[in-house]
Design a protein that fits this description.
This protein is α/β, with parallel strands linked by helices. The chain has one domain (3-128): Rossmann fold. Helices cover 40% and strands 21% of the residues. The protein contains five helices and six strands; from the N terminus they run βαβαβαβαβαβ. The protein has helices at 11-21, 33-41, 60-69, 87-95, 108-119; strands spanning 3-7, 26-30, 48-52, 78-82, 100-103, 126-128. The chain has a six-stranded parallel sheet, sandwiched between helices. The longest helix has 12 residues, at 108-119.
Length: 129
């Protein structure tokens, strides 16, 4: 079973995404970037990371930069979640190595398709608005 790390600070969304994902994947749910970084530092290696842009204690950009600078985590696909439809921010995330940038709210089926695509490691990047 593929392992997914979900980093999301919004409790209702965290609950909903966890409920959707746990039927298909082994999901670890963490509510902020510092806790997620600590979890990764304990030699936990997920197959994919879903990362909220506005994660407390370490925002999405900082977290993404840190994992891309670390050779151990560099190849893990990262799906960025944002409550703001900001093309420049999305493009910046993609330039930093995010796999895709998804704006909330989103269609669950599109979200699941992006996860599947990320797990297959296809090399194209997508901005979903």
């Amino acid at each position: 079973m593929k392992k997914i790390l979900l980093i999301e600070d919004d409790a209702p969304l965290r609950w909903l995404l966890g409920k959707i994902l746990k039927t298909r994947y082994d999901v670890t749910i963490i509510n902020n970037g510092m806790e997620a970084w600590s979890w990764l530092s304990e030699k936990n290696i997920p197959d994919l990371i879903i990362l909220d842009m506005n994660s407390p204690s370490m925002d999405g950009i900082e977290f993404l930069e840190n994992i891309r600078e670390n050779g151990l985590f560099n190849d893990i696909p990262v799906i960025m979640l944002s409550g703001v439809s900001d093309r420049e921010q999305g493009e910046h995330c993609l330039e930093l190595g995010a796999f895709s940038y998804i704006v909330k709210p989103f269609e669950p089926q599109s979200f699941l398709s992006e996860i599947q695509r990320g797990l297959l490691h296809k090399n194209e990047v997508v901005f979903i608005d």
